[in-house]
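From the methods appendix. Each design record in this collection lists the tokenized structure first, followed by the designed amino acid sequence. Records were kept in a plain field format so they could be parsed without special tools. The example shown here is representative of the layout used throughout.

RECORD:
FOLD TOKENS (393 positions):
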């Protein structure tokens, strides 16, 4: 194809040799990122490229400092083949999760291997905290970088997960009155200047859904809903493999949804953080369940069939409304509440949904280990950094 396409030497013209080489380079780099070390032969098999083309590609990527050799493959007849891997030192990324009690930051190399992690405890509504949010973010990132012996110059991208969502028009955080320090319209620019990387602030539940797409229950599904049932409540909606964000970034804020049995939402602009009351969240949040169970731990509270069945009914009622509108293949239950309720809660939710809505999505409980918000932030940061680093055009 390259031989029959006129080329004027421009790096951006589709079909030119330079663009085709860049496409092949990216395909090989993505394979190495997904599979780890591979031989030249295996890269050729997976990309469909000839041996000479694969050899040229690897030589080019080695010269660019993106790929290095890492020993030889053993255990097969004949000469041991050289293994190639992405050079993990070409870039690092930072991923953070913000919550009402603090910030967790991790730093990973371009292959996704974690090299540092740091946690800062900070009450988000405290007066001395809300005015130094940017400083706390930098301290958390610096703590993770210090563990790895790295500095800001080593970072290529930073992604922060927070409750609420950034309005694409105003740049302001919405739907998160309990995080007052994050509402500055200039926060992202301030962080980018100090950290020296592009900074993305993303809804935490959206990031949990990205984690499910990459390595969780939704890996084989392009249309799914993630219901986040934790201290806060929300949802992420993925259609055709793409997150649905909405006009103000608030798609999926089901915590505010009016449902039977819940008082209508009260509160609004000008009211103090945390003053919102009502909606779906007032029935199913972790704090509400513990309070109704007399302060018992979640697992113990949800072992009570009465508490569990009532909760399953509330969850199914809200999810039925979502399913009726977007018709997903799958509903993933994530957060502290589904983890505590386990398979029995999942089964009861599924039973409650039967007959309430015609589409019958699968219902699964997330089986991801660790913090799915941090995992999603890391995957997003890696995608951004790789897009920049792996573009050889």
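DESIGN:
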């Amino acid at each position: 194809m390259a031989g029959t396409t006129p080329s004027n030497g421009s790096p951006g013209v589709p079909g030119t040799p330079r663009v085709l080489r860049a496409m092949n380079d990216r395909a090989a780099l993505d394979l190495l990122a997904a599979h780890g070390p591979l031989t030249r032969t295996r890269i050729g098999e997976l990309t469909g490229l000839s041996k000479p083309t694969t050899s040229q590609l690897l030589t080019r990527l080695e010269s660019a400092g993106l790929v290095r050799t890492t020993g030889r493959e053993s255990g097969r007849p004949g000469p041991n083949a050289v293994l190639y891997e992405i050079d993990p030192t070409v870039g690092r990324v930072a991923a953070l999760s913000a919550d009402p009690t603090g910030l967790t930051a991790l730093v990973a190399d371009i292959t996704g291997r974690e090299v540092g992690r740091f946690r800062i405890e900070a009450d988000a509504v405290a007066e001395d905290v809300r005015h130094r949010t940017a400083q706390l973010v930098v301290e958390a990132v610096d703590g993770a970088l210090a563990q790895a012996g790295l500095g800001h110059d080593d970072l290529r991208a930073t992604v922060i997960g927070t409750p609420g969502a950034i309005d694409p028009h105003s740049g302001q955080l919405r739907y998160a009155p309990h995080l007052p320090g994050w509402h500055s319209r200039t926060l992202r620019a301030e962080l980018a200047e100090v950290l020296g990387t592009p900074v993305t602030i993303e809804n935490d539940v959206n990031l949990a859904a990205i984690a499910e797409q990459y390595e969780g229950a939704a890996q084989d599904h392009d249309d799914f809903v993630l219901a986040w049932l934790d201290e806060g409540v929300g949802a992420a909606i993925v259609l055709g493999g793409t997150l649905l964000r909405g006009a103000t970034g608030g798609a999926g804020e089901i915590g505010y949804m009016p449902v039977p049995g819940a008082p209508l939402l009260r509160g609004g602009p000008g009211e103090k953080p945390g003053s919102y009351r009502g909606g779906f969240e007032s029935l199913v949040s972790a704090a509400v369940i513990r309070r109704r169970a007399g302060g018992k731990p979640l697992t113990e509270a949800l072992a009570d069939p009465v508490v569990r069945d009532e909760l399953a009914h509330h969850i199914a009622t809200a999810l039925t409304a979502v399913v009726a509108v977007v018709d997903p293949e799958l509903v993933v239950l994530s957060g502290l509440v589904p983890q505590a309720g386990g398979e029995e809660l999942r089964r009861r939710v599924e039973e409650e949904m039967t007959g309430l809505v015609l589409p019958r999505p699968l219902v699964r409980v997330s089986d991801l280990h660790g913090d799915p918000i941090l995992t999603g932030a890391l995957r997003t940061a890696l995608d951004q950094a790789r897009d920049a680093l792996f573009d050889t055009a």
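APPENDIX NOTE: The longest strand covers residues 92-99.
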